[in-house]
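Hi there. Long-time user, first ticket. I'm pasting a complex I've been working with (about 650 residues overall). I'd like to know whether the download I got is complete or cut off, because the file seemed smaller than I expected. Thanks.
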Amino acid sequence: MYSVAQLKEVFLDYLQQNPFTQAPIKLFEPVDYIMQLGGKRLRPILVLMAYNLYETNIKAALPIAQAVEIFHNFSLVHDDIMDEAPLRRGKPTVHYKYDTNTGILSGDVMLIYAYHYLLKVEDKTIIPEIVKTFTEVAEAVCIGQQYDMDFETSNEVTIPAYLMMIEHKTALLLVGALKMGAILAKASEEDIVHLGEFGRNVGIAFQLQDDILDTFGDPAKFGKRVGGDILQNKKTFLVLKTLEVANEIDKKQLEILMSSYPSDEEKKIKEVRTIFQKNNIQNLADQIKNEYQDKAMYHLGKIAVVDSKKEEFRALATLLLKRNE
Amino acid sequence: MYSVAQLKEVFLDYLQQNPFTQAPIKLFEPVDYIMQLGGKRLRPILVLMAYNLYETNIKAALPIAQAVEIFHNFSLVHDDIMDEAPLRRGKPTVHYKYDTNTGILSGDVMLIYAYHYLLKVEDKTIIPEIVKTFTEVAEAVCIGQQYDMDFETSNEVTIPAYLMMIEHKTALLLVGALKMGAILAKASEEDIVHLGEFGRNVGIAFQLQDDILDTFGDPAKFGKRVGGDILQNKKTFLVLKTLEVANEIDKKQLEILMSSYPSDEEKKIKEVRTIFQKNNIQNLADQIKNEYQDKAMYHLGKIAVVDSKKEEFRALATLLLKRNE
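Hi, the file is complete. Here it is re-exported in full:
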């Protein structure tokens, strides 16, 4: 078994050996730019980890790992245009560095290139199932992004709808990465289901934790500005849960605060946080997050490989879900 | 054999029976909108025609026809954003009717949906080759669009480069449509090559004819404003050929005209047309167009099916390439 760090290294080697730069340069240079910006490389690592549960030589899974990472970066390029985001991983986004048309077209060619890499899988009999899994996930990610945009202007977002949105936007690509690795390794249908459920539950738990840390995290460790979601009036789990459990006065006050853009930002963050604390929201959110984490671990346990092989999955989940306060 | 008109009807029936409307409505309604805007449906017809050369029941080819039409419309949605075009087939473009973000994301989901339809092909053993052919063509179309945008600001566009650009942007999708129909029908490799060459040469001839008609067509029959390319300073085949064959004075005058945006538009059109006429450009362009048309017919002749089955291909090529003056 490879460690998470080793898998990342193997993937980065492959990425380095498969650059995108070709003519026309204006189309492909931005692809190399975003692909080299760094990041955790979580999704390709999940492809390789799932494959590595069954096969010691992980080479055959590298094109799928690459496809998943290209797709993830495609979605970042187009999302950053839609969100008008100037920065990604501390560097200019593609449409800021180049222009919006470049962002659109280079994004398009990335989505196509993801399929290009899936087709490099040597076992051709498995390609229809791989392409199908990938296509379903890709569609789900678009649906998640649309719901995320819809929710910005809706006042009727429910907790189940929110969970459905983060499942589509974040969790299902993790599910797809794990499933494709396992499908390529010809794992049993049961194992594929359990791996997928592990990914789904880890993905949702990870997003819930992000919501918690965005409001309650340690500024020195969080990496982004703590309180950012509050300032953007985002309907996170914390907000939706408060609207569910709080009394009418707190609900009304939160609704007013979460539709305001005051000049004293720290005051707003503090007031919203006070309402959350009064209603025990951090604990309630932690509780739900832990439920998803427990479900993930349950499904990991059900996978029919010797337990020692699951160690890296536990390590990765712990890393992703560790409290960062 | 089905006639072109019958194939269009069969395709439109399938399109009608497979609507895109589902939740989230803001993502999929624009897909239905653009798919219902009409058009010649040339590309799906080519898929079905190629399949119909070998098989009488064309039902199995319908998902591929749908995939190709979805892809074509995806490229229109994103190109219209990049070109800031307000109208498409006389109706508002997607990003004008909705907004740019909708155009981007609904376009993305269309590209993914094209694959979704390819995966509906019942013979799973053929899917890897179909998906590969499709993916190569999709990449080529993006490359063609990038070259088209690059050429707008370049003063060093050559005729070979221009032909390469229109081959990528227009012809290769016709090639792909024909090839996928033939691959599904398990046609011989020779037939697939000849069908592809037929499509490539028809596609280039069609684009050259569009260049000619845009300047010399009958305003009553052309559908767009005659002289539109001249007013937009587009480096069409006519311009590039003039820069190749004309004397220095004509070249200089054309260069000045083709970088101007005068208020008297009709005067500019007339002056550019006069330079073309003096240099016999319409005939030279016709000559090249006819060479491509002849090559298309040569390859059509080489396809190993009885000649009577090729009648609809000849009818379609004649329809596409008929002089419209």
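A couple of notes from our side: The interface with chain A takes residues 24, 26-27, 78, 81-82, 101, 104-105, 107-109, 111-113, 115-116, 119, 124, 127-128, 131-132, 135, 138-139, 142-143, 145-147, 149-150 of chain B (CB under 8 Å). The beta strands of chain B are 87-88, 91-92.
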